[in-house]
Design brief:
The structure is a homodimer.
Chain A lengths: L20 H8 L3 E5 L2 E4 L1 H20 L3 E2 L5 E3 H6 L2 H4 L6 E4 L2 E5 L4 H11 L8 E10 L14 E11 L2 H21 L4 E6 L9 E7 L5 E5 L6 E3 L19 E15 L1 H6 L2 E3 L5 E3 L1 E8 H11 L1 E2 L2 E2 L10 E5 L7 H13 L4 E4 L6 H11 L3 E5 L7 E5 L5 E4 L1 H13 L1
Parallel strand pairs in A: 3-7, 19-20, 19-21
Antiparallel strand pairs in A: 1-2, 4-6, 5-6, 7-8, 8-16, 9-10, 10-13, 11-12, 11-13, 13-16, 14-15, 17-18, 21-22, 22-23
Helix pairs in contact in A: 1-8, 2-6, 2-8
Chain lengths: ~425, ~425
């Protein structure tokens, strides 16, 4: 992609009401734009990061045998009334009326998924089912100044599972817990499984996946050995108490919730009368679980965790492009010659962001590359004499390499 | 994917209010479910088809130098008021109020894209820009009985382009026209470029892409030689009139609109005051175009065009899976042996839907395969004696092949 053609280029300033590091850097780097409070456009670079996160999640969801679907965003009042959440979640839901009919915008999809299930499931042979989608959620929450960590409109991966027994649900719940940790690990994040309150979702205890960060809205009390963590909303023990397993004193820290899993038992299926026929011919309520990951939020979390004073430092697996190519042309070489390396990289199938701007200083280009945070910076100039200067975002060492070596290294890092 | 685990299996009947062939077959085949009038869930098989359509469109959009982004769905009233469409499009828009603020759901994104542009574009050097996204549209239109050809909530690819001159806009408009024909051609559809009325979008003439079909809501008058086509809403000539270029009499036919392109000139940018600085330092209004393809609708169009009395006949490039594997196990062979071919296909990277159900007759499995419409049916049984029976959906001839040959053929068709 030629940087000169991109709509969202770097900017000197983020909007004044954006105080978080993630929003500032994502704004200044040209990853996002703000339509209104809590609502962001993903510009091209931001959409690329989002798609890479999405693909990692998709692969891991499929590994659990879950099937990808896509549920609607505009929901009829009737279905939400069945569980009582039309009223209970009134504060957070966006509702509207058109003609005689009342609707809610998707703030979550439990009811919609169960409605789908009860139209399809007949017997124990059809269970379990596990369906997930990537889709938009709308939540009118009190605004914290957290940038895209908390949007009123945002992308979420939500997975729902339906089972014949408590045991089967528990087994899948534990499987998803592990898979979530694997996903966050693939994204370069260390998440702590944390017991928490279920809010408008359930009265039961749920599990959140918390990434330590000073800007987190949550506070957790956790064991450094990894065997205990609770959201301080529900935690009855205090920091400093000794861990029962001898890992030392419990710690308290701020954290960002990146995922949340819910085991609902038969609460929802009883309210919505979702049943299956068991192997003795009896009708039984299904067992239900839900599992969410905040996809848009993860973009912000990654920036909070991976940045330095110059800008973002994307882990390579979610970087918008694999390399950032800069040409320096002080002696007015022909444009063709400058484009040569770009064309070769594209032809080799490398994802390359090419800063081909002619009206911008070299210093500005270098500063923009650091701000945008792509893992590898490549420079071509008269000085590099037919070779390419390679520099990793995270260090200051440069190397002169032939184009074949550049391609080989980049392909290797893609495959990793 | 194991068919036994899928949520949406084949059904004997579609809902009674669905009268269109596309909705009936998509329902019965387990591709879609209906949440409410005009609103459909894409089940797993439907989502797969949608994703394949999306990827073909994405590749062609990128070829034109357009950048993929993602704009929000909930829009502030203020921006829609700038062009007057908050009132003008009142009938079709879903609106809501939360607290003191009024919003509209995305029925299109012209205003939102131009708002984005005016926050970024400074000079002629930044233009043109071409941004597209795949996103949800909400339109409360009079319901025709057209299944997913006309939803109240549906997926659309919309592309917007901003230029410094009429000439540059025209050039890109013509480029997109050609690219759209290429996209429909890749999908196996013959689209006719047709002049049409601009509705709530513009007073200018626009171009629709119409696919001939008896169930189409539109009627077009067109030359069989391809040099003239108008939507009969605006057409002043009659069918039977001789084509000026000697292609014989004009024809009249029903058709389904699958895409629509709009050249707005400076109408929108004047209303929204979207300007750039030209090379003499003067402020000028930008030239604006928009280009839509109905992604969900295309699923329905493909079914209308490609089906027979037994079910759907997907073109291979959009089929949910490349082959449909059926095992017949009358002599109670071990499950491992039955799964052997499936595992080999998966390992070879073939997309395979595996009907591994044990409680369903062979006849039912064959009927389901014809209904679902995957291009290649594979059968493994005691009779096939270590080989695999290959049958194309479109003919009745069967062949016995070794697994290596099966993989080779399927990989070849994927690459094509």
């Amino acid at each position: 992609m030629r940087y000169s053609k991109l709509l969202g280029k770097t900017r000197k300033e983020a909007p004044k009401d954006e105080v978080s590091v993630n929003a500032k850097l994502l704004f200044r780097g040209g990853f996002i734009d703000k339509l209104m409070a809590g609502s962001y456009t993903l510009l091209h670079l931001g959409r690329r990061v989002e798609q890479k996160i999405e693909q990692i999640i998709r692969e891991e969801m499929n590994e659990t045998g879950a099937e990808e679907i896509l549920m609607p965003l505009l929901h009829p009042k009737e279905i939400w009334s069945e569980t009582g959440r039309w009223d209970k979640a009134d504060k957070v839901m966006y509702k509207l009326k058109k003609g005689e009919k009342e609707y809610a915008l998707s703030f979550t999809h439990e009811e919609i998924f169960l409605d789908l299930v009860r139209k399809h499931i007949l017997t124990y042979r059809d269970l379990p089912v596990k369906g997930y989608h990537f889709s938009t959620k709308f939540r009118d929450e009190l605004r914290a100044k957290s940038g895209i960590l908390r949007g009123r409109e945002f992308l979420m991966k939500d997975l729902y599972s339906v089972h014949t027994s408590s045991k089967d649900l528990d087994k899948y719940y534990e499987e998803v817990k592990k898979v979530y940790l694997k996903i966050f690990d693939r994204l370069g994040l260390k998440a702590i499984v944390t017991e928490a309150d279920g809010g408008v979702f359930t009265d039961r205890v749920t599990h959140e996946f918390q990434v330590l960060s000073d800007v987190g809205e949550d506070e957790i009390i956790y064991c450094p050995g990894g065997d205990f963590s609770q959201n301080s909303e529900i935690c009855k023990v205090k920091e400093g108490k000794q861990c029962d397993l001898g890992h030392g004193p419990l710690k308290k820290a701020r954290a960002i919730e990146v995922g949340n899993i819910f085991s609902y038992g038969t609460d929802y299926s009883e309210k919505m009368n979702v049943v299956y026929t068991d192997n003795s011919g009896k009708k039984q309520h299904v067992w239900f679980g839900a599992y969410g990951i905040g996809v848009t939020r993860l973009i912000g979390v990654l920036v909070e965790v991976f940045h330095d004073e110059k800008g973002i430092v994307w882990p390579s697996q979610v970087a918008p492009y694999n390399c950032h190519l800069i040409t320096i042309n002080k002696q007015q070489l022909t444009k063709n010659k400058m484009d040569d390396v770009y064309n070769k990289l594209v032809k080799a199938g490398v994802e390359v962001l090419y800063d081909d701007r002619e009206d911008v200083s070299v210093g500005q280009k270098f500063a923009d590359a650091d701000l945008i945070g792509i893992p590898v910076r490549l420079v071509v100039s008269e000085k590099t004499a037919g070779k390419v200067e390679w520099k990793n975002r995270i260090d200051s060492k440069t190397e002169l390499l032939g184009i074949e070596e550049v391609v080989k290294r980049l392909k290797r890092s893609e495959a990793a």
